[in-house]
Design goal:
Layout (H helix, E strand, L loop, with lengths): L2 H17 L4 E17 L2 E19 L2 E7 L4 H15 L36 H16 L5 E19 L4 E17 L8 E8 L8 H13 L10 E7 L1 H12 L4 H5 L20 E3 L22 E5 L2 E2 L6 H7 L11 E3 L6 H6 L3 E13 L5 E12 L2 E14 H6 L1 E4 L14 E10 L1
Parallel strand pairs: 7-12
Antiparallel strand pairs: 1-2, 1-4, 2-3, 4-5, 5-6, 7-16, 8-9, 8-11, 9-10, 12-13, 13-14, 14-16, 15-16
Helix pairs in contact: 1-2, 3-4
Length: 440
C-alpha cells in the first residue's frame, strides 16, 4: 500500500464514521515491517520477519469516546468495523473533556526532512542481516576463554503511517530504525554468571557501531564484572555512565505528565518555575532533531511538534500535557509524550571525571527498582565499580540506591560532555554527591 492508498483509505474510513453518526473521528492507517536475527554459538538462534498493516479509529459521539484497531483492511469488513465502533461508542459514558484538538494546535506545515528514513533499507537482504549478527557473535565469543555465551543480534524496521482528523488535520510519517548488539555472559570462579551488553540503535544503517567494536565492548564490560561483591553501605559519590543515566529520568516521566497532575499523583505538582534540581540540570524536549529516534512533526494527537525546555538550570519549565488532561486542568496542551530529550552538557568526559573520584561508585547498570510518582521516593538495584583515587578497584553488585528524586537531582554536581547518541534520551554521564548505597 502506497502513501496515496493509505490516505484514501483513512479518509474513506473517517467519512464512513461521520456518515454513521460520529460527531468527530480520527483515523490512522499504518504499515510496519520488522526483521530480527540472533546468532548464538555459531548458529542462527532466531530469525523473525513480521509485517503488519492496520487501521486505528478514534470515534467521538456526543462527548462519548472509543478507540479501536483492526488489521483487516478490506473495505467491506472495515465498513462493519467502523459501524460497530460508532454503535458501541453510544453506550459509553459522556465525558465533556473528550474531543479532537482545536485545529489551532495542528502544524502549519509538516513538510521537510528530519532525516529519519534510510533509503538503503530497501536494498538490504536477509543474508546481510545474518552476516552482521554472525560477525558480532563470533567476535564476542573469541574475546576470552572466560566467556561462556555470546549472542550477536541485528534488527531493522520500516514504518509508514497516515493520520487524518475530521476537523482538518492530515499528516504522514515514514521512518527506519536499525539496531545491532552483543550480549556476553562470563563464568565467575564463585559460580556466578555476570553478563553485559553493548549495542547501538540508529535511523541510518551506516551510523551503527562496527561489529568488532560492539563485540569487544560487550566482552570487556562482562569480564570487568568478574569477582563482583557487596561493599559497605553508606554515602558515596555516584558517577552514572551516560547510557545508564537514562534510567534515572524515568523517575520523572510519570510525575511530569498531565495525567499525574490531574490525579494529584505527581510530586512535581505546583512546581512550575520553581527549582526542583541542581543548576546543572538543563533538559530539553526536541522533536525536530535530525536523525532523532523520536523525531516527528506532530505527536499522536496531531499537536504540532515544538522544542520546549523541561528543566532550565534546575527550574521546572514545562509538563507533558496532552489535549484531554489539558482541558481537565485548564492548561494549554504541550504534547502527549516525550520525543528526543537532550541535555546541556559539561566540559569533561567520563574518564576525566572518573580520575578525580577519590572514593565513589561508577554505576554501570540499574536492576529493577520502583518509584513513587506522588512522593518522588525511589529504590533501584545497581551494578558497577568501586572507585578509589581515580581507579576502579572492585566490581560490585547486590547493592541498591534509594532516596527521593528531588533530593537526588539537587545533588547533581557535574554533567559530562558525552551524550548517549543511541537512544531518544541522550543523557550524558552524571556525577552526584552523597548518594546512599546499601546492600540488597
Amino acid at each position: 500500500m502506497n502513501e496515496k492508498e493509505r490516505l484514501d483509505l483513512a479518509e474513506w474510513a473517517m467519512n464512513h464514521a461521520l456518515k454513521n453518526g460520529a460527531s468527530e473521528a480520527a483515523v490512522q492507517v499504518r504499515s510496519e515491517r520488522r526483521i530480527e536475527v540472533d546468532v548464538r554459538e555459531g548458529k542462527i538462534d532466531r530469525l523473525v520477519e513480521a509485517q503488519q498493516h492496520g487501521l486505528d479509529a478514534e470515534i467521538y459521539v456526543d462527548k462519548r469516546f472509543w478507540t479501536n484497531s483492526t488489521n483487516d483492511l478490506r473495505k467491506d469488513e472495515l465498513a462493519k468495523f467502523i459501524e460497530e465502533s460508532v454503535a458501541g461508542t453510544r453506550y459509553l459514558a459522556r465525558d465533556e473533556y473528550r474531543g479532537l484538538p482545536d485545529p489551532r494546535y495542528y502544524p502549519d506545515n509538516s513538510e521537510g526532512d528530519l532525516k529519519i528514513f534510510d533509503a538503503s533499507y530497501e536494498k538490504l537482504e536477509t543474508r546481510d542481516r545474518i552476516k552482521m549478527a554472525r560477525e558480532i557473535a563470533e567476535a564476542a565469543r573469541a574475546a576470552s576463554d572466560k566467556i561462556v555465551a555470546a549472542t550477536g543480534s541485528y534488527s531493522d524496521s520500516h514504518n509508514e503511517a497516515i493520520r487524518v482528523h475530521s476537523n482538518g488535520f492530515m499528516g504522514g510519517s515514514r521512518g527506519t530504525v536499525f539496531d545491532a548488539s552483543a550480549d556476553v555472559t562470563v563464568k565467575d570462579e564463585s559460580g556466578g554468571r555476570p553478563d553485559d551488553w553493548c549495542g547501538a540503535t540508529t535511523r541510518f544503517r551506516k551510523d551503527l557501531l562496527a561489529p568488532a567494536f560492539i563485540a569487544q565492548e560487550a566482552a570487556r564490560r562482562a569480564l570487568a564484572k568478574l569477582g563482583q561483591k557487596k561493599i559497605e553501605s553508606g554515602q558515596y559519590l555516584c558517577l552514572v555512565e551516560n547510557r545508564t543515566a537514562r534510567r534515572l529520568f524515568r523517575i520523572l516521566q510519570e510525575p511530569l505528565s498531565g495525567r499525574a497532575l490531574q490525579q494529584k499523583s505527581s510530586f512535581l505538582d505546583g512546581m512550575m518555575h520553581k527549582q526542583v534540581g541542581s543548576e546543572k540540570l538543563t533538559m530539553v524536549d526536541d522533536p525536530t532533531l535530525e536523525k532523532g529516534l523520536a523525531s516527528r512533526f506532530f505527536d499522536g494527537s496531531g499537536l504540532a511538534a515544538r522544542t520546549m525546555p523541561i528543566f532550565e538550570q534546575g527550574y521546572l519549565r514545562n509538563y507533558y500535557v496532552d489535549v484531554y488532561y489539558g482541558r481537565k486542568l485548564g492548561m494549554e496542551p504541550t504534547t502527549s509524550w516525550p520525543s528526543n530529550v537532550t541535555f546541556e552538557t559539561g566540559a569533561r568526559s567520563l574518564d576525566a571525571m572518573l580520575k578525580d573520584l577519590k572514593q565513589g561508585i561508577l554505576v554501570q547498570g540499574f536492576i529493577g527498582g520502583n518509584s513513587n510518582s506522588t512522593t518522588g521516593d525511589f529504590s533501584m538495584g545497581i551494578s558497577g565499580l568501586l572507585v578509589q583515587n581515580g581507579q576502579a578497584v572492585a566490581p560490585i553488585h547486590e547493592m541498591n540506591i534509594s532516596g527521593n528524586a528531588r533530593e537526588l537531582f539537587s545533588r547533581l554536581v557535574e554533567v559530562g560532555n558525552d551524550p548517549y547518541m543511541y537512544s531518544s534520551m541522550r543523557t550524558p554521564s552524571l556525577l552526584f554527591d552523597g548518594v546512599h548505597f546499601s546492600g540488597m
